[in-house]
Design a protein that fits this description.
Largest sheet: none
Helix content: 55-70%
Order of helices and strands: HHHHH
Number of domains: 1
Structural class: mainly alpha
Distance between the termini: 34 Å
Strand content: under 5%
Length: about 150
């Protein structure tokens, strides 16, 4: 049960941003077909990443508990170091388009500001501490965010 606080917090934050639409009478662009496509792609990528973290990494996707014991470098993790963030971003964008929600677009904007800070100040430091030179080499080979992009630390 102690591992459920983080997913519950994320769900509560997303729900709160979705509620902003009804509180303020906001109406956003509604493109259900594009939204469902983004939701499906994001969910599929999240499932693939989660499967790799459990099977190959011997842990879970949870950033604070049941961390992986092995560094996962294949699949989407061989293209960018943070593919799960692409998945979550696609899910948030998809939800915003399905619902026509400005609140969820605001949530996505907040996510896009928060995630680089979280990755740089917590996750990468934790990964380097746990995996050492193997992680540093991985960072030299695989870009943080953009496929084929600049490698950053």
């Amino acid at each position: 049960m102690r591992h459920l606080w983080y997913p519950a917090l994320v769900a509560a934050v997303v729900w709160a941003f979705a509620r902003l639409d009804s509180l303020f009478g906001w109406k956003g662009v509604r493109l259900p077909w594009a939204g469902w496509a983004l939701l499906a792609a994001g969910a599929a990528l999240a499932a693939w990443c989660s499967w790799l973290l459990v099977r190959r990494g011997r842990g879970t996707p949870h950033p604070f508990a049941a961390k992986t014991r092995r560094l996962v470098k294949e699949g989407p993790y061989g293209v960018v170091r943070n593919p799960m963030m692409w998945a979550v971003g696609a899910i948030l964008a998809g939800l915003a388009l399905v619902r026509g929600s400005l609140g969820l677009l605001l949530c996505l904007a907040g996510f896009l500001v928060y995630i680089p800070l979280f990755i740089a100040h917590y996750e990468e430091r934790d990964m380097e501490r746990r995996f050492g030179e193997e992680y540093r080499e991985y960072c030299r080979r695989v870009p943080r965010w953009w496929p084929g992009g600049r490698r950053s630390r």
